[in-house]
Predict the structure.
Amino acid sequence: MSRENVETVRAVFKGYLSGDEAAVRELAAPDIVISMRPDQPDARDHKGYAGMLQMSAEWIEAWDEHALETVRVWDAGDVVFVVARETWRGRLSGIPMEHDSTFVCTVRDGRLVRMQIFGSTRSA
């Protein structure tokens, strides 16, 4: 089952990165829970499709430019880890930044049910 979970997570990221909202909705559970990086001052959980869209909109709104590239994906038993490189430019400062984030993804019955975001693989 873990190979299928990795493929589900890859497909969710591919859908998100290409702007294919229908693919993301098909592969994410309606009651998905996304936990923001715990080191963020406003860290909180986002629930369901509406929460997922709100989180994405808030994040994108903060930056003039934002890109995310999947660097590595692997199965770790009950979860799938994704390391992604994020690059962005601050809306107010204009300063370019780059950082790797780690996403811990839980898949059940072929759908993404939980995604936890961390600032590093070590903290994940």
Q: What stands out?
A: The longest helix spans residues 2-18. The chain has three helices and six strands. The beta strands are 28-35, 45-47, 63-75, 80-90, 96-108, 111-118.
